[in-house]
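Justification of resources, computational component.

The compute hours requested in this renewal are based largely on the per-chain cost of generating structure records like the one below. Each record pairs the submitted sequence with a full structure-token output. That output is archived, and it is also reused by downstream analysis tasks.
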Amino acid sequence: MTQVSKQADNSLDERDSVPRRLDQQILCELQAFFSPSNDYIHLSYFKLFWIFVTGSIFGLVVETFFHFIVFGGYESRAGLVWGPFSPIYGVGAVVLTIFLNKFYHSHNIVIFIVAMVLGSCIEFITSWLMETLFGAVAWDYTGTFGSIGGRTNFAFGVMWGLLGLVWMRIIMPFVKSAFEHINQRTTWIRILTIVMSVFLLIDISVTLLALERQAERAMDIPATNFEQQFFDEYFSDSYMNAIMHNTSVYGRK
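The structure output for this chain reads:
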């Protein structure tokens, strides 16, 4: 083999090795990114549950104040029949925590964009499920800038992005510190977590059944069994409207 052909073969080998080195580098970076050691906070059911509770309450408070400042007057924005909870914000807090947990050391712009996309998806899916399953509409952004089927829009996408930044940069350090000072093995902590888990499971189940029956009443379906009679008596339209003032089972107007 001549010297020229050897050099040509070496050149080809080097060119072939470049993609392999890049693939290995990308694989190593992905492994490092998804490694538990890259997590800002170690996640568990205990932590995610209380993040859900905190997010549900915090989101409800923020939305209530927002409505008071922008529109004036108090209006109940709760999402469950019992307690000061708005589960969409709880779900948002959990999803943002799970996904942004890997991005804590990333640039703020990256966190903002990821939170904006995640929050918009949560809002869209929640709106679609509520309307598909119960005919209920809790918000309608039709006609606003960047509206996607009236279920989310650009402004609220930006809000989700900002919430993600606030959540990860300001709130999560406090949450992490609080978890580090709580002994999860303490008996009363375990009991409280179990009791609250059962309560919220019942609360969510009753809320879904109440919304289903409210949708039936909107279609003039009479109560023919004990369950329907029970929800007609204890979760009437006036009761549901007082709690979920911004939710309508009559579809989009």
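The two ends are 82 Å apart (CA to CA). Helices lie at 3-34, 45-71, 87-100, 108-134, 154-180, 187-218, 226-234, 237-243.
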